[in-house]
Amino acid sequence: MLEIRNLHVAIEEGTKKLLNGLNLTIRDGEVAAIMGPNGSGKSTLSYVIAGKEDYKVLDGEILLDGKNLLEMEPDERAAAGVFLAFQYPLEIPGVATMTFLKAALNAQRKGRGEDELTTPDFMRRVKAGAEKLGIPQDMLKRGLNVGFSGGEKKRTEILQMALLKPSIGILDETDSGLDIDALKIVSEGVNALRSAKRSFLVITHYQRLLNYIVPDTVHIMLKGKIVRTGGKELALELEANGYSDYVTNAAA
Amino acid sequence: MSNITPLKTEAEQAMIAQGASIAADRKPAFARFADSGLPHRRIEAYHYTDLRALLKNAPPPAQAGGKVTIASPLADIDAYKITLVDGHYEASLSSTLPQGVKLQSVSTLADDGADEKGVLSPDPVIALNAAFSESALDIEIAAKTELTKPIVIRIVTTGAHASYPRVRVNVGDAAKAFIVETHEGGVSGSLIDSVFELRLGDHVEIDHLRLNLVDQSATVLTTFGGAMGRESVYRGHNFVMGGALSRHQIFFRFEGEQSKADISSASLLNRKQHADSTLVVDHAVPECQSREFFAHVLDDESTGVFQGKIIVRPGAQQTDGKMMSRAIVLEDGATMNNKPELEIFADDVACGHGATVGALDEDSLFYLRARGLPKTEAEALMLRAFVGEALEKFEHDGLRDTLESLAEAWLKARSA
Ligand SMILES: Nc1ncnc2c1ncn2[C@@H]1O[C@H](COP(=O)(O)OP(=O)(O)OP(=O)(O)O)[C@@H](O)[C@H]1O
Ligand SMILES: [Mg+2]
User: Fold this and answer.
1) Which of A111, A200, A204, B34 could form a disulfide with A79 if both were Cys (CB 3.0 to 4.6 A apart)?
2) Domain total of chain A
């Protein structure tokens, strides 16, 4: 279970709050969707959960299965089960995708006191995962994300998630940049990972993704706060009316 | 204005005293050194590496007969081996050379650092070597010789003394060879001043690897002078991990048209190491191409220096020269000094240089750490990619593996 309580975040003390008293709970097995206008703080929230250092947490707490994430390094959070599929995955020239995948998997195993994967075992897992997501093997020989198209990057993020099997997967606009077929393939990939123990936080601008990855809860985020929570029908309502209701309400 | 002769430092006085009874043929070189003394920061080429301030004392010159107790880092490589111990040729640690390669151990080689005409330029460190080097190796690779195995020249230092290794290799026309130079050993108090000269004929193809693996407490000053004829290829690689204080000078000159030189270097430095790489590539003739790529990784409180100069002489039209220096500074206490320069006296040339200094990209590191890689491991992955760029041009698989494992050990020691 992920519990976020009264989270206040700014770049620096005294500057504008990017998250402003945010509360959110995601139960085990739950798929929660967050929708909200540009700049409302969705990516900021995902980065703060994952442990990016650019932000200053002024108040509040984030607990994953009772463990205080805010006291952990990014890699410790990953080991605890956090996975963030980036809105903009980074290109890292010179680091072969395969080398990186192996290092990440083995780091996770080391943390659990397990032996390193043998090369054939590792290859088998990657091959199976890549096939399901329509990722050609050749792509994995290249530098990490280097020269990958927008959609290819997003698929590779999901491949990483499938290999690392987190307890909470945060998908930050994974649907942007995907063509219609890829949207289905990636959604199937995510759905295959759904389980009673694994939860997801799906950040999106478009209701369409939620037809494929059907959420249990939908949250509307505005100016760094969750302003409304509902079921999947809330996404349909937003699709029809936009955010104007909330923007005027919030202003009132 | 009066001609002010600065007071000699203790080290300079000791060196001058050591040369009091020097042989007649060394007197000119000795006089050049005695005249200038150790170079200091007001001498442009030594601005970042002030030897007068950094060299506190002058250890006594080494005698022959030092015992080698360390294993060669290249023991597993199938190669012809030549060993110099404290600057003296050691036949018992050298292998029989193949046909087409002749080696002579001589007491003196021509002192050609007196003026700009030689491969070696006037330079106090070269003059010091010429004054004190008592045994030199003169290696001749005959025209058309094609060596299938590398020649590895081990230059080993065994104690707290000064050694002056001197090697000259003449490569005849249309020969092909791979020459490796390893600098090993040394202790705190060792001073190594070595000069390696490579004279290349026409149509040659030469790989040259230089490894500085001396002890992290030693002082190591090394000079490489190369000159190449026409339609030839030279690939030089430098790998620097050793020395408390090190300076490697490269003087490379194109003497024949349509030749290519590719010079790359990777320096991995930590603690208080100071490593200077100073390069002068002289395009004295038209239509030659040079590429220079220098990479530094600086940890802890280390200091890196890169001074690179491409000279294009009048008339050296269609010169194509590109020089790049990249440095990663891992800690606030580490420093990189870059001084790239072009001196161009011809109008139809394509030359350029660039230099970057910075930390590893924070966002990339976060991305890797968010996948579970601990900080040092994420850094190691990125550093390996960074150093890989300097090593990728390396053609010999076995030697590349050795370099990669040396880099790997360095990275491992960081995270330990
Ligand atoms: N490192 C930063 N420095 C300064 N401002 C930042 C930084 N990161 C985010 N912000 C600001 O915080 C606000 C929230 O940004 P965030 O990226 O979280 O929005 P978002 O909801 O993900 O938007 P989008 O839907 O466009 O992806 C924006 O106004 C943004 O400019
Ligand atoms: Mg965003």
Assistant:
1) A111
2) 1
A76–chain B nearest CA distance, Å: 7
Cβ–ligand 1 distance for A220 under 6 Å, the answer no
In a mutational test of the B interface, the residue from A44, A54, A88, A90 whose CB has the highest number of chain B CBs within 10 Å is A90
Does residue A148 form part of some domain? Answer: no
CB–CB of B73/B405 below 8 Å?
Answer: no
The alpha carbon of residue B365 is apart from the nearest alpha carbon of chain A, in Å, by: 9
Which CATH number characterizes residue A171's domain? 3.40.50.300
- For residue B179, how many other CB atoms are within 10 A of its CB? 24
Alpha-carbon distance of B360 to A90, in angstroms, equals: 13
Q: In this structure, is residue A132 part of a structural domain?
A: no
Is residue A109 a part of any domain in this protein? no
Q: Which candidate in A72, A87, A92, A153 is best for mutational testing of the B interface (most B CBs within 10 A)?
A: A92
Residue B304: helix, strand or coil by DSSP? strand
Percentages helix, strand, coil for chain A (3-state, rounded to 5) are 40, 25, 30
Domain of A55, in residue numbers? 2-93+166-251
CB atoms within 10 A of CB B23: 11
CB contact under 8 A, A164 and B367: no
Q: Is residue A140 part of a domain?
A: no
With CA atoms as reference, report the closest residue to B4 among B37, B52, B46, B47. Answer: B37
Per-residue pLDDT of chain B (416 residues; tens, 9 = 90+): 445 556 789 999 999 999 888 888 899 999 999 999 999 999 999 999 999 999 988 999 999 989 999 999 999 999 999 999 999 999 999 999 999 999 999 887 877 777 777 778 789 999 999 999 988 999 999 999 999 999 999 999 999 999 999 999 999 999 999 999 999 999 999 999 999 999 999 999 999 999 999 999 999 999 999 999 999 999 999 999 999 999 999 999 999 999 999 999 999 999 999 999 999 999 999 999 999 999 999 999 999 999 999 999 999 999 999 999 999 999 999 999 999 999 999 999 999 999 999 999 999 999 999 999 999 999 999 999 999 888 877 778 889 899 999 999 999 898 77
pTM of the model: 0.90
